Amino acid sequence: MTHIVVIGAGQAGASLVAKLRTLGFEGRISLYGAEAAPPYQRPPLSKKYLLGEMEEARLYLRPEAWYADNGIELHTGSRVEAIAPAAKEIVVDGETIAYDMLALTTGSAPRHLPAALGGTLGNVFTVRDLSDADAMAPHFTKGKRVLIIGGGYIGLEAAAVAAKKGLEVTLVEMAPRILQRVASPETSDFFRKLHGGHGVKILEGTGLERLTGSDVVTGAVLSDGTEMEIDFAIVGTGILPVTGLAEEAGLEIENGIRTDAEGRTSDPFIWAAGDCASVPHGAGRLRLESVPNAIDMAEVVAENMLGAGKTYVPTPWFWSDQYDVKLQITGLNTGYDKIVTRHGDKGAVSHWYYAGETLLAVDAMNDPRAYMVGKRLIDAGKSADADKVADPATDLKTLMRG
């Protein structure tokens, strides 16, 4: 009987094992996760869960009993120690387990603040897993002072929760503007104004010199010499693919675990999917950090493990919730040279990224219609006339014609 082992019990791992059963695979499936909880959603951790509006059980992707009911051996709290590709074995909790095929869905991990900058002080948090959210939640009380390091989506989402809870929030971003790596100046401006309206102090072009305190953080010194007193800090400076096991096993690494177009690694019996995997894209490679990519790639890999031979074609999309604003992003804005802004009803706005006449991506703030039309166009390899997009009198539906 074929034994498929999946390492990493996050969104990609859970999606992969579910797809295997949906496709009729009747062999043995083992899913290993280092965390104690069964596979769960991560996006709500920095939103509803941290706000206290969602219980832990509601985070779970499926009831824990579902795995046993579907013949999936779920091993939580189990950290895989090594992979031996030549023997087709893994070592976990001191035990050697044989596999016929292996999938790596190890995800990503947050960048931590170095100890020299105060990263090992107490009450310095990251936002990545359930234990992170549980550890920081008690500090989200009115009047407390929090410093958020990093002006990407995770940092801004944490800032929004803290502001809604009545904390004094300061966010520092070393780059000249928030969201610089991922969004246009126009989108940065929108969110800077949004957070400013909720009392968040955003300091751009300002880095962290160091956190201060003895055992627990009590203050911070910024790169401009400013000294401030704080009660806790949140580090949101990005994530890195978890590739340690793959590297030690001798698999090829290139901005993540390198796979072919089907999701197969440099070992023919080992596959990878989700945040940890980089796939061929155009003349280069692409690694996406998003829930949709984790699901879509994992499902294609499941099909290919059973012989489908399908090419995985990423269709990037992403979302972020901050206050009463839902940001929806479709496409990749790399290489844009023009931004077209469209204003909708009730404060809705969208920014359309173009390279010449080619539509690359759309950022839509409280404008689901703009997002959906943009996504359909991009997925279909079509563009839309920029002047028509900018004209609020244009019915977005007409952009799909032709």
Automatic annotation (TrEMBL):
FAD/NAD(P)-binding domain location: 3-298
Record-linked SUPFAM superfamilies: FAD/NAD(P)-binding domain (SSF51905), FAD/NAD-linked reductases, dimerisation (C-terminal) domain (SSF55424)
Cofactor(s) needed by this chain: FAD
Alphabetized UniProt keyword annotations: FAD, Flavoprotein, Oxidoreductase
GO MF, any single term: oxidoreductase activity, acting on NAD(P)H
GO-annotated cellular components: cytoplasm
InterPro entries, sorted: FAD-oxidoreductase/Apoptosis, FAD/NAD-bd_sf, FAD/NAD-binding_dom, FAD/NAD-linked_Rdtase_dimer_sf, Reductase_C
A Pfam family it matches: Pyr_redox_2
Protein origin, superkingdom: Bacteria
This protein's name: NAD(P)-binding protein
Originating organism: Pseudooceanicola albus
Lineage of producing organism: Bacteria, Pseudomonadati, Pseudomonadota, Alphaproteobacteria, Rhodobacterales
